[in-house]
Predict the 3D structure of the following.
Amino acid sequence: MDKKTEPGNVQDVDAVIIGAGFAGLGMLWRLREQLGMSAQVFETGDGVGGTWYWNRYPGARCDSESYIYCLTFSPELLQEWNWSGKYPEQPEILSYINHIADRFDLRRNIKFNTRVTTARFIEDTNRWEVETDQGDRVTAQYLITGIGCISAGNIPDIKGLETFEGESYHTGAWPHNEVDFTGKRVAVIGTGSSGIQSIPVIAKQAESLTVFQRTPQYTIPARHETVDRKFLDEQVKPNYEEILEKARWSKAGFPVEFSERLALEATAEERQEAYEAGWAKGGHGFLWGSFKDIGVDRRANDTAAEFIRAKIREIVKDPETVEKLLPTDHPLGSKRALIDTNYFETYNRENVELVDIRHSPIQEITPDGIRTEDEDFEFDMIVFATGFDAMTGSFFKMDIRGRDNLSLKDKWAEGPKTYLGLQVAGFPNMFMITGPGSPSVLANMTVAIEQHQDWITDFIEHMRTHDIEVAEADADAESAWVSHVNKIAESTMFMLADSWYLGANIPGKPRVFMPYVGGLGTYREKCNEVADNDYEGFVLNAGVRQLAT
Ligand code: N01
């Protein structure tokens, strides 16, 4: 659809895509260029980029290595694009995504500054009717969400929040102008991925930085550096397809070998040697390259956790700060794995203080700062690195209604229910890119996103060639998938931490493990099997009514 939608006019397209990040852009390209379909993308921001458009906080960068954090539908682009860092930094990722939008002429199908407010499946026409806050009304056969898993920001409801007279920011909605910390007394609340990346950078600029920590974290040095050009030119670029195939079928979307060794069968010296090597090399390889039982056996996990605690004791000079930083209440890797640049070292700076809010909870935010049970702090700025209402929050910002006017919010009141994380029974022809119940957030995101884009594209092509108007997850197949997702999560250490994977960071959110933990390769195999078996678990036609439970 080349024309812009005008308020009041109803436009008909083949597909509405929500979101113009990696997910929405790659989907648009596939539908338009591979299937010749018309599509309209709606995007809340005034530019492309999704996560990388919003998360502009200091130090923001991806912790997948740059050569494998990319869209792969254009072999030419893969060969031509040159990242500058080992890990890609936010401004560079954003310029990469902008390059993709320009190079493949994607902007003409995107309407920016436009939030989808409602999407309803109209049973009489078998079409989705989509409305936006700009007055657009569009109908489409397919509704495809590319709204991100970690995009609905969470600022905790702390007493007095609105009374603060200084500047305040959430890492996931960072302003587009530079925020200058020079000479400022800054507070950072939260020590997840965003906090751990931004704290060392803010500390260097601010007059003082006070970090409010609820849960101490395990984090491994990233060993970020400029990109290794020789490695890229000689090993990656000539072998890109092979490398990508390995990543696609791997556990987590990376072309790496997982260790087959068991920590509990190794001697203490062998373990120490392996952990030291992982620490020196840096990155997530510390986990997958050392011992395979770290993720499944608590005693094995403890050996790696104790190694990291010893590193914290070694790095951080002040014994009281060390005590606050030592993670002991959850296994390593049970919350999102973290990698950092000078995180623990930052606590040796004179201008940095750590407040343990488990022992001295925040009571309120005052006009001048933050009051804990024990102390009044004065700040010029508060940075909320307090995370997101992950996986479901961004869906609930819209009113999505399927058959019988059932809202997705009601359907998911006790936790998300999906078939393969791709569809929801009762919501025909709605596809989710990296929806709950898929491995997305436990994998290298671009690889997970492209697997969904390709699978959805193939499915739609199948529907078109077989004159299938409506495809809808079968309610029984959905229940079986939800049980499977829960069952495999139950046997893992992910259940032993209060994480956003479980919705534990949002008061009142049902405690349900949302991603599929069985591995990206296994999941890909399952999705392919479903397709090969004539889209088993989906009801394919125009007239069958599903009971949306
Ligand atoms: O959010 P988080 P994030 N009072 O939820 C604390 C991806 N990501 O924005 O642990 C006080 O991880 C909370 O404490 P606790 C990545 O998938 C990737 O950092 O719940 N504190 C925690 O310390 C990541 O996992 C990259 O006890 C409160 C912090 O705030 C996801 O995004 C970079 C609180 C939130 O941590 C989210 O990361 C950035 C309260 N009421 C993000 N509520 C890379 O690729 C929460 N907290 C590198």
In short: The mean pLDDT is 95. The chain has 17 helices and 20 strands. The pocket of 3-acetylpyridine adenine dinucleotide is lined by residues 62-63, 150, 156, 171, 189-195, 197, 214-215, 336, 357, 385-388, 441, 498, 500, 505 (CB under 6 Å).
